[in-house]
């Protein structure tokens, strides 16, 4: 927190880790952890997280331990031996946390994590999600997320994650841009030849966003099928 108070900035990121399976088809959690260390963000929203054991350690706990973060799990799909879904890694003090169910009948279960943090005395609301594959599904989910944002009187709100919106003129993106102000379309998928801006970060008020960029290191191009998206936020 000392560094944040001095510089009045902090970093958030969103990263679909593809269950730690890289573009070479290999399961390699250490590679994902190395990319997260490269990002060096204060809060990272993760998608497609498998919650199971690696070397007797839960995968999310492993990533947190390897990167110096605290882990907040938000699984959406529960299985007998492992769970799957969203997560947050954070270095900031948590003040509240809840899981939001965004599941639609006959579709893969989806959800969001809503968490608030104390950032140098300011309240930060984080809404991290991974939206569905069907257009009607995403339209309903975005309405729920915007309603969630409007219910919280935080100093800064950040909505981020894999929104799975391929069409730049689709209604979910138009609604989100209208509510948060339009953001540039920065391609993050697929990693080798990024074409689609599936991963997004919106910040409100917009004047708090100092920078938005894609992390394109050689390691990030191997570790997952998505590249991380990063935002610098000014208090």
Could you describe the 3D structure shown?
By secondary structure, this protein is an alpha+beta fold. It has a single domain, classed as 4-Layer Sandwich (Deoxyribonuclease I, Chain A). Helix content is 24%, strand content 38%. The protein contains six helices and 13 strands. It has helices at 2-7, 29-39, 59-67, 135-150, 171-180, 220-223, and strands at 9-16, 43-51, 53-54, 57-58, 70-78, 83-90, 94-101, 111-119, 122-130, 156-162, 199-204, 209-214, 229-234. It has a six-stranded mixed sheet. A five-stranded mixed sheet has the order 7-8-9-10-11, with helices on one face. Strands 3-4 form a two-stranded antiparallel sheet. Strand 5 and strand 6 form a beta hairpin. Helix 4 (135-150) packs parallel to helix 5 (171-180). The longest helix has 16 residues, at 135-150. The protein is globular. The model has no long low-confidence stretch (mean pLDDT 90).
Task: Tell me the domain tally.
Answer: 1
Strand content: 35-45%
What is the general shape?
globular
Quote the average pLDDT.
90
User: What are the secondary-structure elements, in order, as H or E?
Assistant: HEHEEEHEEEEEHEHEEHE
Largest sheet: 6 strands, mixed
- What are the low-pLDDT stretches, counting only 5+ consecutive residues below 50? none
| SS-derived structural category | alpha+beta
Question: How far apart are the termini?
Answer: 13 Å
Q: How do the strands line up in the largest sheet?
A: 5-6-2-1-13-12
Q: What is the highest CATH level, the class? A: Alpha Beta
Determine Rg (CA atoms, Å). Answer: 16 Å
The name of the CATH superfamily reads: Endonuclease/exonuclease/phosphatase
Helix fraction bin: 10-25%
**Treating each run of at least 4 consecutive H or I residues as one helix, how many helices?**
6
InterPro entries: Endo/exonu/phosph_ase_sf, Endo/exonuclease/phosphatase, GPI-anchor_lipid_remodeler
Domain Endonuclease/exonuclease/phosphatase: 13-226
GO molecular function: endonuclease activity; exonuclease activity
Keywords: Endonuclease, Exonuclease, Hydrolase, Nuclease
């Amino acid at each position: 927190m000392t560094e944040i108070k001095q510089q009045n900035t902090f970093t958030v990121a969103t990263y679909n880790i593809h269950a730690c399976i890289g573009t070479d088809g290999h399961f390699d959690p250490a590679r994902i952890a190395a990319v997260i260390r490269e990002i060096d963000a204060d809060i990272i929203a993760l998608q497609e997280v498998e919650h199971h054991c690696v070397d007797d350690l839960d995968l999310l706990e492993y990533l947190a331990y390897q990167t110096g973060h605290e882990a907040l799990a938000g699984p959406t799909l529960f299985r007998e031996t492992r769970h799957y879904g969203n997560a947050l890694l954070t270095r900031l003090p948590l003040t509240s946390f809840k899981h939001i169910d965004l599941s639609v009948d006959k579709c893969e279960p989806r959800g969001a994590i809503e968490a608030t943090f104390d950032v140098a005395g300011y309240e930060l609301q984080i809404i991290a999600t991974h939206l569905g594959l069907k257009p009607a599904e995403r339209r309903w989910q975005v309405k729920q997320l915007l309603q969630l944002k409007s219910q919280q009187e935080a100093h800064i709100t950040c909505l981020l994650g894999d929104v799975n919106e391929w069409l730049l003129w689709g209604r979910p993106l138009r609604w989100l841009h209208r509510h948060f102000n339009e953001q540039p379309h920065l391609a993050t998928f697929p990693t080798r030849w990024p074409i689609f801006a599936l991963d997004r970060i919106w910040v409100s008020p917009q004047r708090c966003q100092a920078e938005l960029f894609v992390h394109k290191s050689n390691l990030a191009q191997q570790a997952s099928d998505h590249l991380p998206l990063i935002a610098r936020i000014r208090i």
